[in-house]
Design goal:
Pnp Oxidase, Chain A, Pyridoxamine 5'-phosphate oxidase N-terminal domain-containing protein, 139 residues, Split_barrel_FMN-bd, six-stranded antiparallel β-sheet, 4 helices, single chain, 6 strands, Pyridox_Oxase_N, alpha+beta
Length: 139
Amino acid sequence: MAFDETAAREFLADPRVGIFAVAAESGPPAATPVWYLYEPGGSVRIVTSASTRKAKLLAHAGAATLVVEESAQNATFVAVDLELVDVREAESADDRELASRYLEGEAIDRFVEMASEHMPDENVYSFRPTKWRFASMSV
């Protein structure tokens, strides 16, 4: 099976941890692991505190890159450049949607509670994918 952009979009839509990178004017980029939300053809969304280095750099750069990979059985990666298109204040429903992608049962409630208590300045950042790079070495 060919690994094309459609396959890359489906790969990105699976719940994985990505590395989110934002350029800095001086020094290395901010590159951190993130949970993200994505459905093929839609926007990529992350939820993070407005006070983080990546959020502050993003306000200036207006763009980022997300890299997601799987190397257990199939060496596969997707890297997508992202253009920032919207920022809004996060609600508990945003934390619940994100946590539901990665956690199950009571762990979802614990995550939402922790976010409410310890990350009061969260925003939802929405991005339009602008450039796709991908490869799969699966047999």
